[in-house]
Structure of Outer membrane protein beta-barrel domain-containing protein:
Amino acid sequence: MTPAAVYGGLLTALAVMGPALPSHAQSDWDVRITPYMWATGFEGDLGTIPGFPAQSLDLSFGDIWDELNYGLFLFGSARNGPWVIYFDGSVVQTDSTEKIGGPDIDKVNIKSDTSTLTLAFGRTVSQSSRHTLDVFGGIRYWHLENSYSVYTPFGRQKRDTDTDWTDPIVGISGRYALNDRWQAFGAADVGGFGVGSEFQGSLTAGLGYSMSDAFSLALGWRLLDVNYDTDGIVYDARQTGPIIGVTFKY
């Protein structure tokens, strides 16, 4: 499955859950779709070629921005009574070239695609006029794809690698109305448990401001931590940084 296919499927699913809902169901469903930007850094060990040792990386968002081709992030939820579906996906592509200038190797180019797709089902366990607290369980799917090109006096040598895995996750999510316009939100989950990765965890917290009944702004912070090491592929990474998004309500 390519990153474009993952994101295309994500968009299609959310589109179906949103405007395509029949009119008689609109009053029963609270559907929210949030495209957002995540200004994340990257810290950890990365090894995507079996047989070669992993490299320790510590990159700021500015470092990643310099090599970024595109980054697409989308969150969605659909709530009906106490039941809720959560959906989150991302596709990021970076392209870096390092000039070597040696007699055997002129330069090295690395193009990397990283995709995640999260689907979870939850239920409200506490609710009032000001707050909602849910527990949920689901899966998070990862896809890593890398293309290496080494330029020598004899031409280009290219190698492609890819891997994917799926982890179970469990977590909590909640919102609290501070007043008529502002509300705090947060979510946390843990997973992996050796099924795909050894461990992964996600933490998100922030504030939302309602511009109208159908539109709001969100500003917060997100942390995503994963430790995957299987068949020579290492992805032991901590990504953290601010998020900003817009929410459309149906």
